[in-house]
Amino acid sequence: MDYLERTHVPFYLRDACLLLAEHLAECPRESAVGFLSNYFSSVISGDNVVFREYEYVQATPRNRRAFIGLVWQTYKHLAGSKDVFTVSDCYALVSLLCQDFPIDIVHQSARPLEDGAMIAFGDFVYSFQVEFFLWEYLGALSSTFLALQHACDRTAGVPVAQILGESAKIQATSVLSVEVLQSALTQSHYLSFSEVRASLNRSEAVNAFIRALPRKGSEESKGRRPKRNSNG
């Protein structure tokens, strides 16, 4: 049962059965087996999140990863352009794919960048994946950080070692391992929480953990096709 819960199989079964009941009410002659097969094929491919409501899109790490991938696949051509966008522009792009997506996550995605005004899509999407994939974890980490800051009586920052120690206690839908967090926070002994957030957005270790976007700095991350090896 632990494996089923860990892979969220009961969640997908419930959703599939609800959709199947609606589908059979409209098309009673359709095959239930065929419908369920198509549903789980879409879960595997990531197509299951297309035009679904936010409650569904955020419900599992697989769905979150798939939605980040959907945003990237839909708009990756913007990563290679010189165009810049307002937060409202970015929200409009995301909400075209999920109408009730909360604007707060999009606003938070822009905050570690250039204080607001205009944002390159490539910068936005890497920040967005961290804020969306890890939103409960970041909220818990923020609360932990404030408690540590108060206990240390420091306004400038909190020791990284204490952040790492307390982070291991956080429980959320998607969490970073201590090893990944440590890899992202190597540049200083003391950090403010805004620096923690910015470090997570910059970290290739975090990007690799989420597994939704191309490697940072690669040709693909700039909206280009990877160059083929001429010797191959």
Secondary structure blueprint with pairings:
Elements: H1 2-6, H2 9-26, H3 32-45, H4 54-57, H5 61-75, E1 84-85, H6 87-95, H7 103-110, E2 119-120, H8 121-133, H9 135-152, E3 158-159, H10 160-167, H11 178-184, E4 190-191, H12 193-202, H13 204-210
Helix pairs in contact: 2-3, 5-8, 6-7, 7-8, 8-12, 9-10, 11-13
Would you count the extended β strands for me?
A: 4
What structural category characterises the helix and strand content?
Answer: mainly alpha
Number of helices, where a helix is a run of at least 4 consecutive DSSP H or I residues:
13
- Give the fraction of residues assigned to helices: 55-70%
Order of adjacent strands in the largest pleated sheet = 1-2
The rough form would be described as globular
Largest sheet: 2 strands, antiparallel
Order of SSEs = HHHHHEHHEHHEHHEHH
What is the terminal-to-terminal distance? 46 Å
Beta strand %: under 5%
The pLDDT mean sits at: 88
Compute the gyration radius: what is it?
20 Å
- Low-confidence sequence ranges: none
What does this 3D model show about the protein?
The protein is mainly alpha-helical and 232 residues long. The chain has 13 helices and four strands. A two-stranded antiparallel sheet has the order 1-2. Strands 3-4 form a two-stranded antiparallel sheet. Helix 2 crosses helix 3, helix 5 packs antiparallel against helix 8 and helix 8 packs across helix 12. The protein starts with a helix and ends in a 22-residue tail after the last helix.
